[in-house]
Amino acid sequence: MANTREPMLQPIPILSLRPTQMTVGMIEVKEKRKRLREYWKEHKSHKKQDEFLGRHMIPVVLGPGKLHYVVDHHHLARALHEEDVGDILVTVIADLTMVEKDAFWGVLDNHKWVYPYDAKGERHHFKDIPKTVADLKDDPYRSLAGELRRVGGFAKDTTPFSEFLWADFLRRKIPRKNVEADFEKSIEKALAFAKGKDAVYLPGWCGAASDD
Q: How far apart are CA 171 and CA 143, in angstroms?
């Protein structure tokens, strides 16, 4: 396996990117879309927009059939698609084109490059993962976890899919109907849970240290 981290300067159609997860937080996607529109409005030239895309390349694994499998920034890819951006630049972090199709997902799984869990936190077969970023489903708890990190509930961490781990923690603490009905109130509750000892095992936990 070649670990390349090489940018591909040839634009890739966003809808040709293959997801490695089943969900995104649509509130987070909407926030990214808002920031994109603000940037496009401020920087109307194609050069500036190209510079933005050059600074926000999507990390991918090159798989069988030379398909590009997204391993991070699914939310950005979805936001760009919804803002009618057709193509994106990618960074190839690994070349797995030599791996047989029936072994490919297992290799991704071993490297923690795939997260086949649905909006209920239930694991699915790899074949159930959507084929395009446009087909990713909404998980409100992923939005809750993303906002929780932004307001200081936990620290950014290199653990793969760390925000999904927090999403599953919050899924067990706050009813979904509450998250959907009052997102701001749910953030307040999430902050309280995030500082508690129940969350000590989670990546980026920054609650008070125990005196025991």
A: 11
Domain region containing 151: 140-199
CB neighbour list of residue 36: distance below 8 Å, 6 or more residues apart = 79, 80, 83
Render pLDDT for 19-54 as a digit per residue (tens, 0 to 9): 999 999 999 999 999 999 888 888 776 777 778 888
**Do 70 and 10 have their domain in common?**
yes
Give dist(CA 10, CA 195) in Å, integer. Answer: 45
Partners of 36 in beta bridges = none
Cα separation, 113 vs 161, whole angstroms: 9
Same structural domain for residues 157 and 86?
no
In a shared domain, residues 21 and 75: yes
- The reported pTM is 0.88
Please compute Rg for the chain using Cα positions.
18
